Amino acid sequence: MMDTISLPGPDDVLAAAARIAGHAHLTPVLRARTLDDAAGCSLHFKAEHLQRAGAFKFRGACNAVWSLDGAAAARGVVTHSSGNHGAALALAAASRGIACHVVAPEGAVATKLAAIAGYGAVLHRCAPTLAAREATCEALRVQTRATLVHPYTHHDVIAGQGTAALELLQAAGPLDVLVVPVGGGGLAAGTALAIAQASPSTRLVLAEPQGADDTSRSLQAGARVDDLVPDTVCDGLRGLLGAPNFAILDAHRSSDGTPVEVITVDDADTVAAMRRMAVHTKQLVEPSSAIALAAVLAHRARFAGQRVGIVLSGGNVDPDRLPWLS
Amino acid sequence: MMDTISLPGPDDVLAAAARIAGHAHLTPVLRARTLDDAAGCSLHFKAEHLQRAGAFKFRGACNAVWSLDGAAAARGVVTHSSGNHGAALALAAASRGIACHVVAPEGAVATKLAAIAGYGAVLHRCAPTLAAREATCEALRVQTRATLVHPYTHHDVIAGQGTAALELLQAAGPLDVLVVPVGGGGLAAGTALAIAQASPSTRLVLAEPQGADDTSRSLQAGARVDDLVPDTVCDGLRGLLGAPNFAILDAHRSSDGTPVEVITVDDADTVAAMRRMAVHTKQLVEPSSAIALAAVLAHRARFAGQRVGIVLSGGNVDPDRLPWLS
């Protein structure tokens, strides 16, 4: 649902960067000779798995929380998310000392819920359906008059997510291409804005699971595909592309009108890329992050010899999925 | 076996630091709020798992290689190691463009052997006994006239390993205590020298597997225990304390004559600490590294409120031990 709020623009990313400075970490850019050799290009990894709360999501949540005027802030924020956004919003709200309500479905991962509660948010459980999440969230919003901060369609969330790419472009120097994962499209749309702001000649490539390829199909069709049932190991990329996210990405075309390129990736390649990251860089990233490296490795010719930026979006792997470490 | 070579001293660590600058990475010092809270002290992690070849071992190997005069360098280096030292020496030799021979026993981990060969060393296989390793190595040394660079007793290796602690002390500011793992004692003895050089008031604590506690027993007895059969998940800490390593550690006493403190750690605690590192810092470290954090967490009272330095010695986990990533 497209609401009446205007779409964020390139300058909103700059404003977000100023707003979240001092709250969000300025994460490092990692290099790995072995992976450069394997990929046949030079890779510059923006380490958002080292961001506060373990994912880039803190940027958007923090921008949304600190954009509120005093009266709105006093009423708090509310969202529905059982994953990184819930934890990010909880921590962002704590950074301003305001209330945060998080609606999470039954069956959500226990460690993620513990993180949300650990940051001081109030958890509200609901049935594991999108309808139940939205209804519970709306009831809470009406009751508390808190501001709804949607995980990826919110104006300030999109602008905030763009700051990761902005910092990467500033730190790594000119990049031929930027590769980011796409699920709901908060990071993808924010990155498009950051490119428009800071480096219009940089190509944007999105990496999407084959089992959740609505963005690929939407951008090809020129209209949102919203009837897909996602099936992928990338738990952070199961959301369908949001309406404002589609609008921003659909408008982000090269000078000859070519739409944004989407590479769809097989889950097995994503898990192999996660393994490569662990072995060669000692960094633990979630599948939803490793997919960007997998996209490059599966299409070497498209990146040969280029300077490639990759946003490692997060590192919140379910510990139960790491048996050796349990 | 103690040979006639003199023991390295504190100034040798300074000389090593100058020698390896530009070859070894100046690795970052990592912080983690969640782990500080869990430990009740402030932890400063020297990230040697991000060192070249994935472990602090590159420091000692590099110092040894670059200490050779031209004639000796032309004859190359030789060692026996199926682990991090073999890869480190191979890479160090490559950095100077000299020959490297590595003796590795049958049954060694395939990925480690591939790394050694990948750095350009000549691999020599032998039977999986210490006697076979030493005999094969000695025969090669005589045949090639290459210099033997022992994994932990070599003068320049010990001095080189001390540079990790030196950099940590320089980067983190005054530390109350430094905790490092101990196996053969290259890192432990080098760290003792670095403390003597740069921060004599810093307490040295060694972390040792309960199933390989020869250092603990040796320092208590005042004589090397050399008949222990190690049994631990920490594959980097199965070597018995070397003679020069014992001599340096035995001499490193507090002003009232107290010997260096050794904390013995249960393997289960080590694996739990490895998991904590992965979950809270997204860093993949080997068990032989995680043991230092485990030691602190198991004895909080000894470190309460203190500024604690930890050398994360390496990150070369056998990929087959990470099933989810395979």
UniProtKB/TrEMBL annotation, chains A, B:
This protein's name: Pyridoxal-phosphate dependent enzyme
Domain of life of the native organism: Bacteria
Classification lineage: Bacteria, Pseudomonadati, Pseudomonadota, Gammaproteobacteria, Lysobacterales
GO BP annotations listed: D-serine biosynthetic process
Keyword Secreted found: no
Entry keyword set: Lyase, Pyridoxal phosphate
GO function terms (MF aspect): ATP binding; L-serine ammonia-lyase activity; magnesium ion binding; pyridoxal phosphate binding; serine racemase activity; threonine racemase activity
Cited InterPro entries: TrpB-like_PALP (IPR001926), TrpB-like_PALP_sf (IPR036052)
Entry keyword Lyase: yes
